[in-house]
Design goal:
Helices cover about 40% and strands about 20% of the residues. It is of the alpha/beta class. It has 2 domains: about 210 residues, Alpha/Beta hydrolase fold, catalytic domain (Rossmann fold, 3-Layer(aba) Sandwich), CATH 3.40.50; about 200 residues, Rossmann fold. The strands form 3 sheets. The protein has an 8-stranded mixed β-sheet, with helices on both faces. Strands 10-9-14-15-16 form a 5-stranded parallel β-sheet, with helices on both faces. α3 packs across α4.
Amino acid sequence: MTLHHVEILLGRESLPGDLALPPNPRGLVIFAHGSGSSRFSPRNRQVAEALNAAGYATLLFDLLTEDEALDRRNVFDIPLLGARMADAIDWARNDERFFAAPIGLFGASTGAAAAIHAAAAREGEVSALVSRGGRPDLAERWLGSMTAPTLFIVGAEDREVLELNRAAQRLCLAPTELKLVPGATHLFEEPGALGQVLTAATEWFDRYLRPRPILFRDRVAAGRVLADALVRRAPSRPVVYALPRGGVPVAAEVARALDAPLDLILVRKIGSPQNRELALGAAVNGDKPEIVINQEIAHALGIDEAEIRHLAAPEFEEIERRRAVYLGGLPPIPARGRTAILVDDGIATGASMEAAIHALRRRSPQKLILAVPVAPPDSLERLGGLVDEVICLAAPADFYGVGQFYREFHQLDDAEVVAMMKEFKGKS
């Protein structure tokens, strides 16, 4: 378990938060504290610790700035508080650690209303919600548009709030349950009461926090999330390398965010004579063009290195044609002593990426980072051993092709690549 102090940005302002991150978290639960409370609420922290023990990451943050907290009216301003919860959801989705993670919300007292508001505002982003002694009546107008399955936990002796929760439950279209804690009042201070809250909340998130379907809007959107991840790492003297064509719009966002030069690693598959789709290896451009051979396939087909070099000749011709078209024949940007960031729109088998990694290694970068939006776990595991760091937003097990994870995934043409590369011309 690691603890991080984070800042949720709000334009020029920011809200402090505490992020608890267990290894391989099952999801992220964001907390909304009640009136008169803060991220240091002892009861919420106990709930968070129980969720951490169950494998969930948790984020507790202050919903108001110091100046805003001085005005008592703000602690009951549900649209304002709900917007802050929505900001926290956006913050999580822009962090590669949580891009693919299911998100749950936990709200106490008025914080429950803020959580309901945020779940309605970010429909589809919130997988489950738990309200502890909540005031859902303060979010009545959003209850009917919220789709997150919701658990209302109420002390059996907190009779007024109990009736408010029952009324709210009737307005919800999403699946709901009402959990009564016998003998408990509003703050669940009675012996054993908070323990029942911990158990009920954990079981609810266990039931509903499942990996969400990954679908990027397009390559540019995927590139922006990757860019945020790399900016946080502040790489030393970065240079970004894209695999064209599909990797260029992703890499352009990364290079722009890092104020770094953008170059291309041109790779062409070398197909077998019997089946052009079966890769014997790959041809890669560079200071010294090279061939990376898939020894297992070459041996199985009985094809020697001389024949592979013969088959590679037209692929090298196409590489030179593309370099002339895309970059006007400019030489590769040196990577020696710099942080080389290798980017594509995704990885399938990883054959082309492996060839690109070998080519970049020969240029002696200080550090080599592989950054992609999506890849299958087995390819990531194999390629991860060849680089210094891997940044991948999603590694779904049900992987059939890179395009399945994009809403818009057209095949770029040469003109689009040329137009994108113009912005970086002369930058080194």
